[in-house]
Amino acid sequence: MQTAIATVCLSGTLTEKVEAIAAAQFKGVEIFENDLLSFNGTPAEARRMIEDLGLKTITFQPFRDFEGMPEPQRSKVFARAERKFDVMQELGCDLLMVCSNVSEASLGGIDRAAADFHELGERAAKRGMRVGFEALAWGRHINDYRDAWEVVRRANHPAVGLVLDSFHVLARGTDLSAIRSIPKDRIFLVQMADAPKLDMDYLSWSRHYRCFPGQGDLPVDDFMLVLQATGFDGLLSLEIFNDRFRAGSARSVAVDGQRSLIVMLDELRRKTGASLPNLPNLPPKAVCSGVEFIEFAADERTAVAFEQILGGLGFAKTGIHKSKAVNRWSQGDINIVVNSDKEGFAHSFNITHGTSVCAIALRVDDASATIDRALKLLDQPFRQAVGPGEVDIPAVRGLGGSLLYFVDRKSGLDRLWDVDFEPAAAASGSSGGAGLTVVDHISQSMHYEEMLTWLLFYTSLLDVRKTPVNTVIDPGGVVQSQAVETQDGALRLVLNASQSRQTLSSRFLTELFGSGVQHLALATDDIFATVEQLNANGIDLLPIPENYYDDLEVRTDLSEENVERLRARNILYDREGNSEYFQVYTKALEGGFFFEIVERRNYTGFGAVNAPIRLASQTRLAPNPTMPRR
Description:
- Helices cover 35% and strands 25% of the residues.
- It is an alpha/beta fold.
- It folds into three domains: 2-272, Divalent-metal-dependent TIM barrel enzymes (TIM Barrel), CATH 3.20.20; 288-423, 2,3-Dihydroxybiphenyl 1,2-Dioxygenase, domain 1; 436-621, Roll (2,3-Dihydroxybiphenyl 1,2-Dioxygenase, domain 1).
- The strands form three sheets. The chain has a nine-stranded mixed beta sheet with strand order 14-15-16-13-9-12-11-10-17. Strands 18, 19, 20, 21, 22, 23, 24, 25 and 26 form a nine-stranded mixed beta sheet that branches.
- The model is unreliable at 625-630 (pLDDT under 50).
């Protein structure tokens, strides 16, 4: 298959779009008519620009309101088509995409539409061109690909073919089986788009919420399986209308598009054994068994204060780096690295972002294969100098310019603590711990237009599933939250974004000067004992309003005694069936970062019902964003 992307997917001018498309290693491009109309040059000049970048224009689209028009509109629409053919000749494009008519003036009838397409095919063929017919999900008379195929079949012209668009097919829930019987040479173009499941009219759904395969909820894989059954090996393109994409970086979105196609086609090859010679040979998705460490960048002053907090949380300093100003703090199976070195990546990260998470290291089954897959998915690799004999851990760039490291046992990368660190004095930090066991989840805040990018980044690289999108009410607006997690919960990443600039999530981005980890959730087997220890250690916990506990007593079957135990310790509570979840938060540190402590009792969620309470409490304690900071 030849893969391509439509210019309508991206923000910017036509020049910026095609440059981004070429940089993302596409070879084909669909030119959206409005992009050409706004181009400051002739179609011939656009063609030279496109071809100089190593691209080929595969389609000019869309041609609207064509079939079934009465006179005099019918004559006018054919005259308009001839003008489009003139443009296409200059553009170096031989395929015009025609979408089904939505005009109230149009007349129904498969034979009438077929006759129109036969004539259009005749005109196109005289110029060495072709036309493809697509059924819009909201088409006036034709909104089903099966009817569009019947029009093409009856038109019976070699220059007239079918365009299949996964959104228009899947959004209506149309039966896919008929695709298998369509001859592959009659399918001129396949356009791919995913979308979240939403209850709205097809037009609004399509124009604002489409996304790349893997970012939404439509059964795109099922669509590809029936398409593969036809033997189709022609043009496969992405056509996405999405407000986030239009607000984001054209280069980043183009890379996302390429990545989504690579993953989608790789899954198809694995399921069917299809021969896809132009597709890179991807190793399997990385199997993650947990978080090896979380690294904080800090300067000498803030490192001291931050390490005091770690001590209060029950962490002990267990290692000192042999060649850098880097300390390892441990508790249970949790490793937190504090990097205050005056050179290297963490130092640069700290200058830009302040004290913050600069890297996450994941335990995977095969670090070498993981980095190989990452590079083939166009993720950005990272390397920095390491000392003689020190472990060189493979990494790629992650959220907000941070790093994502990969550690495994088979290559000895898990020996980094023995190789790179000297043991710290036994008395360093907390002596008894606070009962914290593992990293429960990592919460990352990002710009709204980035959220689909990082969702695809994680789901394409790691063997994780995505949870449904959850809407959280913040006093400053609405926050969209979605988690990706392994089947066993060994890794949970929560992605948060908001269009409002007044939410805590958005204000954190301002404090951090970019996207990043806003909080870490650490697990305990006994939250009551852990909170007692944190209180004894002087850790400031987030106060929860009395009203919350009054309501908790009413809406749950907890005894008055148990509610009082929660109230006295500022612990939030949720229950799903017989499963229970307990959570408590520290007050926010400088910059807005905070810790969460959780206890799960067969509970799989994240306490979403408590999020508005927590956010309101944090908002009350947060600095007034309208006041100047000193």
